[in-house]
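REQUEST FORM: STRUCTURE PREDICTION
Request ID: SP-0412
Submitted by: Lab K.M.
Chain count: 1
Length (residues): 211
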Amino acid sequence: MKSALKQKWPVWLAVAAACLGLHYLAMLLCRFVMNGGISLQSFGDMFWHRLTEPGDAPRYLDIAANGYVTEGENQINLVFYPLYPLLVRGLSILTGSLPIAGIVVSQTCYAVSSILLYELILLDADARCAWDGALLMALYPFSTFVMGVFSEGLFLMLTVGALYALRRDRMAAAGIIGFFAALCRTQGMLLFFPAVYQFVRVCFLGPDKRR
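STATUS: Completed
RESULT:
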């Protein structure tokens, strides 16, 4: 078991680095095309703005800083689920900054989700296909949201993690992970359906012999 994990660690790190690297490369290229050039300062400014200010990012940061309120302008924050801002609040104790904590949580979760997807594909295909799947996910345009202060990275990790646990017939683990996915986004409740399917399949067909 330990020797198997030792062999997997370099691959996992390579998958995570490649997937995150593709995102950073895409941002650099976009900045270069838009400005006809690039400097570290301009990229840093763009990076900070695009990952901490657009869309729902200010809402998540406000929840992490002040919690939920039932009056005033920020009562709309009640529609956002608590798991992501709670993790951001907890990590900010170490980083000293809520936006930095949000970026770290999102990008770490995305890196883990790319590894989980790699392992999920390996259950049915070879390493080449697993690499292709992880890299194609990184190239998907909307995956840019996993890099900033949004809950997508965390939700992706929990979703892929729950599906991987189901495929390994770890029903209890899948249930716990699915519960946390539902605390992240409403769509987490949809994991109930693949869980039921896998439970019925195992009951009638038995565990998958290929694993």
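NOTES: The chain is about 70% helix and 0% strand.
Reviewed by: T.R.
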